[in-house]
UniProtKB/TrEMBL annotation:
It is found in: Cell outer membrane. One of its GO terms (molecular function) is long-chain fatty acid transporting porin activity. This is Transporter. The keyword Transferase does not apply. The lineage of its organism: Bacteria, Pseudomonadati, Thermodesulfobacteriota, Desulfovibrionia, Desulfovibrionales.
């Protein structure tokens, strides 16, 4: 029974962080330097190869054969302030690290009406790391989450002004979690590590309509992606090592719908506003299978909206400048949270510039992410397994994001 209970605690903690990570804590929207600078306001306006990650139908706006390759660097930081109990009180900084998110796109016009392409990018990841002996270590002290989406597409111009595109999204998901686990039958904490990965699949669909010469609209849909995660669990407390074991759980990432309207007030200026709805309320439970039978945990997430506005101005025939603003809602309800995801609503400010000629393009971007502070109650355990609550705040959460993309077309 002791081993089964410990397994249950660890497995549920790890799989829940995978869900919470995508839920605005570590959602990744950095698809290219140009998209970063525009706050992903590329749903309906001028297209480049990375636009297919936001709206697949933008594929039909790309002539000839085009490639884009680049990377985004994300440098996040956050502070957890514990107010009570008194013995745990203090401010604790998560370790700051530079996370690199690569991207690649290729597109080709088969005919005047039929287009194909593929995008390779990430939709969630990053991590959180604290000292292994900090007061919240029984919740988490180190977690890493990674994903890669491969999204082949086919697009079709239904008319001169209206186009659609569709394709599967094949997603690889990987995680690692380290925490301290307390139990009354074992003296001291167990050092616990769980890691695992899985493959899941969904579908992406997009549409684009050129309403007038200066006005266009776009919409996109990404289906749910179900990940059947299999992981290995390692637990030990010096001489009290528990036999390594394995477990599996199913996580269904939610569907999302995006909209955008692009306006060109002048030949040089383009402005786009948009929104993306993410259906987190559809995630209702986490089911874990392991030795001893299944376990089901209910969840309480709310649907969210992500609002974006971006502008691009052509300084010269070869140079463009860009700026944007994004407001990103958190789906987490209440203040009963986890240190795994010290998240809340976020503001994102973007800037960038790009150079291009007939064959080559180089784009660079900088974004500053600012997270709103929030109160938090986190449930942790003592070394004897006795649960208690830590009350405090998530504060000083921000991130610096840099992007660089090189493109080639012929």
């Amino acid at each position: 029974m002791t081993r089964r209970v410990i397994q249950l605690i660890v497995i549920c903690s790890v799989l829940l962080v995978a869900v919470a990570a995508q839920a605005a804590g570590f959602g990744i929207y950095e698809y290219s330097a140009r998209a970063n600078a525009l706050g992903n306001s590329v749903m309906a306006g001028k297209a480049d190869p990375s636009s297919i990650a936001i709206n697949p139908a933008q594929l039909t706006e790309l002539e000839g054969t085009q490639f884009a390759l680049g990377v985004s660097g994300i440098y996040p930081s956050a502070t957890v302030k514990i107010d009570s109990p008194a013995e745990d009180a203090g401010s604790y900084d998560g370790e700051s690290s530079l996370w690199t998110i690569p991207h690649f796109y290729a597109t080709h016009a088969l005919t005047d009406d039929v287009y194909v392409g593929v995008g390779v990018f990430s939709r969630f990841g990053l991590g959180t790391k604290f000292d292994s002996d900090w007061p919240g270590a029984s919740d988490v002290h180190d977690v890493r989450i990674r994903s890669v989406s491969i999204n082949p597409l086919i697009g079709y111009k239904v008319t001169k002004n209206f186009s659609v595109a569709i394709g599967p999204e094949i997603m690889w998901f990987d995680f690692m979690l380290k925490k301290k686990t307390g139990h009354p039958m074992i003296p001291g904490y167990l050092d616990t590590k769980m890691s695992g990965d899985s493959w899941g699949a969904g579908v992406s669909v997009g549409a684009r309509y050129q309403i007038t010469e200066w006005l266009s609209a776009g919409a996109s849909y990404r289906s749910q992606v179900t990940q059947s995660v299999k992981g290995d669990i390692n637990m030990d407390a010096g001489s009290n090592r528990i036999k390594d074991t394995s477990a599996s759980g199913k996580i269904t990432l939610p569907e999302q719908v995006g909209f955008g309207i692009n306006v060109k007030p002048t030949d040089k200026l383009s402005v786009e506003v948009g929104a993306t709805w993410i259906g987190w309320s559809s995630y209702s439970e986490l089911k874990v299978e392991f030795e001893g039978g299944p376990f089901v945990k209910k969840s309480d997430y709310k649907d969210t909206w992500r609002y974006n506005a971006g502008a691009e101005y052509a300084l010269t025939e070869n140079w463009d400048v860009r700026a944007s603003y994004v407001y990103d809602n958190s789906p987490l309800n209440g203040d009963s949270l986890s240190y795994m995801v010290p998240a809340n609503d976020r503001h994102l400010f973007g800037f960038g510039a790009g150079w291009h000629n007939e064959s080559w393009s180089v784009d660079a971007s900088y974004n500053y992410l600012l997270m709103k502070e929030r109160s938090a109650t986190v449930h942790v355990t003592k070394s004897n397994g006795m649960p208690y609550a830590q009350k405090g705040e998530f504060k000083d959460g921000d991130a610096h994001i840099f992007g660089l993309t090189v493109g080639y077309r012929f």
